[in-house]
């Protein structure tokens, strides 16, 4: 394959990353003479999907140092990497930098990832506020992230609100019903055990 045929190299890189063969993808990435924003974004996603979010964040920093302007896809990979690495504060800083440093408006994926990391960090009130104030209608992904965190943190009232929203968006899917049932069951179990 010619060195300058970036789309073909990117396709091969993406295939390795999607199959979980991130070490092979990294080897290919390192050998590529020419890289574009897609090349970098594919590697950032590859690392985050493998659960190596820190490497994804490092790669994003290198992308910026190389003089490339991140786009929505590269920011999605970055926030996903921060989320998988449990780096809440860093995720927050990068979320703000989308607009502040790069002049882009965060998209729905960016908001959903940020709502997810707030939820998984047990910052449920902040997550709910973020979801309610998104500049577009939140989808079931955001509400289910909050709902799942309500289950983990035994927050029945907030869980009921999140379930109502999620069920309204996907009335024929059982996941939200099951999460709400689990929250109610756990709350009842705690009440019963405290009376013994």
Q: What is the compact description of this entry?
A:
With 196 residues, the chain is an all-alpha fold. It is 74% helix and 0% strand.
Task: Give structural notes.
It contains 11 helices and no strands. The radius of gyration is 20 Å and the shape is elongated. Helices cover 74% and strands 0% of the residues. The model has no long low-confidence stretch (mean pLDDT 88). It has 196 residues and is mainly alpha-helical. It folds into 2 domains: 1-106, Tetratricopeptide repeat domain (Serine Threonine Protein Phosphatase 5, Tetratricopeptide repeat, Alpha Horseshoe); 114-196, Serine Threonine Protein Phosphatase 5, Tetratricopeptide repeat (Alpha Horseshoe).
CATH superfamily of the largest domain: Tetratricopeptide repeat domain
Contiguous helical run count: 11
Radius of gyration (Å): 20 Å
Q: What order do the SSEs take from the amino end to the carboxyl end, as H and E? A: HHHHHHHHHHH
CATH class of the largest domain: Mainly Alpha
What is the number of independent domains?
Answer: 2
**What level of helicity do the residues show?**
over 70%
* Largest sheet data: none
Look up the CATH topology of the largest domain: Serine Threonine Protein Phosphatase 5, Tetratricopeptide repeat
Termini separation comes to 72 Å
Q: Indicate the proportion of strand residues.
A: under 5%
How many E strands?
A: 0
CATH architecture of the largest domain: Alpha Horseshoe
Low-confidence stretches: none
Averaging pLDDT over every residue, what do you get? 88
What structural class do the secondary elements suggest?
A: mainly alpha
Judging from the principal axes of the Cα atoms, what is the shape?
A: elongated
PPR repeats: 5-39
GO biological process, one term: system development
InterPro entries: PPR_At4g14850-like_plant (IPR046960), PPR_rpt (IPR002885), TPR-like_helical_dom_sf (IPR011990)
Keywords: Repeat
């Amino acid at each position: 394959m010619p060195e300058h045929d970036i789309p073909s190299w990117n396709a091969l890189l993406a295939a390795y990353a999607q199959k979980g063969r991130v070490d092979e993808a990294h080897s290919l990435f390192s050998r590529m003479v020419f890289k574009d924003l897609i090349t970098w974004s594919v590697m950032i996603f590859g690392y985050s999907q493998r659960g190596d979010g820190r490497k994804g964040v490092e790669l994003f920093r290198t992308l910026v140092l190389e003089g490339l302007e991140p786009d929505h896809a590269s920011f999605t990979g970055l926030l996903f990497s921060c989320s998988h690495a449990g780096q809440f504060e860093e995720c927050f800083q990068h979320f703000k930098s989308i607009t502040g440093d790069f002049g882009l408006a965060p998209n729905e994926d960016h908001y959903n990832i940020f709502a997810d990391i707030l939820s998984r960090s047990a910052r449920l009130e902040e997550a709910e506020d973020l979801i309610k104030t998104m500049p577009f209608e939140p989808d079931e992904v955001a509400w289910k992230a909050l709902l799942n965190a309500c289950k983990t943190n035994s927050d029945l009232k907030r869980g009921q609100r999140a379930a109502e929203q999620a069920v309204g968006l996907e009335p024929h899917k059982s996941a939200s019903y099951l999460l709400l049932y689990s929250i109610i069951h756990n709350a009842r179990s705690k009440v019963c055990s405290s009376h013994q």
